[in-house]
Every structure is written in structure tokens, then in C-alpha cells.
Write a structure and sequence with these properties.
The protein is an alpha/beta fold. Helix content is about 30%, strand content about 15%. The strands form 2 sheets. Strands 8-7-6-9-10-11-12 form a 7-stranded parallel β-sheet, with helices on both faces. It has a 5-stranded parallel β-sheet with strand order 2-1-3-4-5, with helices on one face. It is elongated, with a radius of gyration of 23 Å.
């Protein structure tokens, strides 16, 4: 990864209300989240004026108002980035980057039509997300959540030999729906668990050397469902993947299957997931993504003992979020300079 250039100033971001703009400032960049790491703000503010949004959670009305006349956008939230936003900014807008890997909330075709480059921040978050995926796998396979409820309710039954038996990872067939950088980071971590093999379903096969490295085989979706003991969802949300894990898919899975989703919530039909877990069509699941987000506290998924759920925290470490912000800042600056982005989305 290209390192951030050394800067000679540590100028702080300025809000749109401040008027003491330096003569050296050429471009204005809208920053849609007030908590963007300072390293990224410093990088951009050495040569540009930053228009900071201050609302938490990010407010679309504020974003639309402050977007007027900006040349670049640092999109630090999952508020839809669409035609309305681009129209509010105006024709001088020439560079945008999200601070995320996924861009399913972006109207990509509208940006392409206007010839506005878009950056995003994949790869850099792969290790953090993979770490969380491993935690979800172990928690779901070994019934961590259910075990805690037993403690909370004083219903220990450890006089039964078969009490709280879970699924082992060793000798298992591990499947991946999507096997890009995050999936491969998970596969690297699985090497210490003595798994049997890896199956994956993607649009295009891996290079042969990578298949050999991971002992991985590309299979059709129905075989992935039928043969996986543990199945990770690590694919982007597209019209083709939306809702693909549903009442048709779950009965094809093994009864002992553990399903992990660290990609996007709508890839799973949550009503069907509830039924599959409630009726023990599959053993358990661990999810870091869901819909809607935030998930209501009274959602029926939260009543399931065999579901481990975390609040979309896959990339939530200081190191990873800071790296994401710096890459996004580089993307915006390079776009403004007419240079190729460090991490282009297309």
C-alpha cells in the first residue's frame, strides 16, 4: 500500500461556517462524518478546505446542505450516495471516496454517467473482519451465547454427558460464498484448526496456485450448501446475491452446519434464517451484519439461543479504521488532482 506523504503542517479541519480560508486552499471537500480519524483530516486539510458535517448519526439534510459547491467528498457514512446528493453538490464535483469496502449504498451508475471517480477501502479491513469471523465461528459452533444464557438463568445441567455439545472445527469442510481478500484472510486463519478442505463458490475461479495454497475447490452453489460443515458468507451484495440464503437454500444444508455472515445482511433472508434456526434445519449461525441496522431490540432473531450476533463491528479497530480513513483521503486527493485513485471502485 502506498504510504501517506509526509506533511509539514497539521492543520485542523474547518467547518463551513469558518471564513478565514487560506489563499493556498483550492478545493473544498465535504466530510460526512464528524469522527473521521484526525490523520486523514490532516492529510486532506494541508491543501484543501474541509466542510465538516457535525450530526451524529449522520444527517442527510445536513449533508445535502453542506454539499453545495464542494469539489470532493469523503463519504464516511452509509447514508445513500445518490443522484440527489450529486445534484446538491453541483457540476464542479470531481472526486468521491467512501470509507468502506462495500458500496451497495452508492448509485454507481449515476457516478459513472457523470464521469466522477469513486474510491473505496477494501483489502485494508480484511484482517480485522477475518478476526471477527473466526470469533463468530467459534462462538456459534461451541454455543457461547446459549451457554451464557444458561449461566444467567442458573440452568446448568452439566450432570448430563451430552449437555452443551457443540461442533468441532477440525476435520471439517469449510465453505465460502465469496472468496476474495476477506475470505482468503479467514482461510489463512483456519490453517491452525486442522480442517479437511475448503470449498468456494464465486463467479470466477481462483488461480491454480491459490487453490493449491488453500486446498480449495470451486463448486456450484448447491454443492457448497450440501457439503459445508461451516459456511462463511463473504460476498458483495448484488441483485444476484440478495436473499440467496433462503427457505430454498437452508434445507439443502447439513443439520450440523454453522453459518457465518460478515458480508451484508440482505444476502440472507432473515425470516427464513429464523425458521431454519428455530426448527434446527441448521445447527447455528453467527452474524455481524443484518437488516435493518440497527436491528430493533425486539427482533425475533434475538430470541434464538443458537444465533450469535454482533452489531456490524467487523472493521472496528483503531488501526483498521484509521487505515481506511487514510486510504479514503488519498483517494479523494488523487481524484481532485486528476490522478488514478489509490483504491478505485471501478
Amino acid at each position: 500500500m502506498t504510504e501517506a506523504p509526509t506533511t509539514t503542517t497539521t492543520a485542523k479541519a474547518v467547518s463551513s461556517e469558518e471564513s478565514n480560508e487560506s489563499d493556498e486552499v483550492t478545493f473544498k471537500i465535504l466530510v460526512t462524518h464528524p469522527e473521521v480519524p484526525q490523520d486523514a483530516l490532516d492529510l486532506m486539510s494541508t491543501s484543501c478546505k474541509l466542510i465538516m458535517c457535525e450530526s451524529l448519526p449522520p444527517n442527510r439534510t445536513e449533508i445535502l446542505e453542506k454539499a453545495k459547491g464542494v469539489h470532493g467528498m469523503f463519504w464516511g457514512s452509509h447514508v445513500p450516495l445518490d443522484k440527489e446528493v450529486l445534484d446538491a453538490a453541483g457540476p464542479q464535483l470531481k472526486s468521491i471516496s467512501t470509507m468502506s469496502a462495500g458500496i451497495d449504498y452508492v448509485d454507481v451508475e449515476e457516478l459513472k454517467k457523470r464521469k466522477i471517480p469513486l474510491g473505496h477501502t477494501p483489502i485494508v479491513l480484511s484482517d480485522a473482519v477475518a478476526d471477527l469471523a473466526m470469533g463468530l465461528m467459534l462462538s456459534a459452533a461451541r454455543r457461547f451465547h446459549e451457554g451464557r444464557t444458561k449461566i444467567d438463568s442458573s440452568t446448568w445441567e452439566n450432570y448430563h454427558i451430552e449437555w452443551m455439545w457443540g461442533q468441532e472445527i477440525r476435520d471439517s469442510t469449510v465453505g465460502f460464498f465469496g472468496f476474495g481478500s476477506i475470505g482468503q484472510a479467514i482461510a489463512k486463519r483456519l490453517k491452525g484448526f486442522d480442517i479437511e478442505r475448503i470449498l468456494y463458490t464465486t463467479r470466477r475461479p481462483l488461480e491454480k496456485k491459490l487453490e493449491k495454497q488453500f486446498n480449495a475447490e470451486k463448486v456450484p452453489f448447491h454443492e457448497l450448501l450440501g457439503q459445508s460443515d461451516i459456511l462463511f458468507i463473504a460476498a458483495p451484495l448484488t441483485p444476484e446475491t440478495q436473499g440467496i440464503f433462503n427457505s430454498t437454500a437452508f434445507p439443502k444444508m447439513k443439520k450440523n452446519a454453522v453459518l457465518i455472515n460478515i458480508a451484508r445482511g440482505p444476502i440472507i433472508n432473515q425470516d427464513d434464517l429464523y425458521t431454519a434456526l428455530k426448527t434446527n434445519q441448521i445447527f447455528s449461525a453467527g452474524i455481524d451484519v443484518m437488516y435493518p441496522e440497527p436491528l430493533p431490540a425486539n427482533d425475533k432473531l434475538l430470541t434464538l439461543p443458537n444465533l450469535v450476533i454482533t452489531p456490524h463491528i467487523g472493521s472496528a479497530t483503531k488501526r483498521t479504521r484509521t487505515d481506511m480513513a487514510i486510504i479514503a483521503a488519498h483517494n479523494v486527493l488523487r481524484g481532485l488532482a486528476g490522478e488514478p485513485m489509490l483504491s478505485p471502485a471501478y
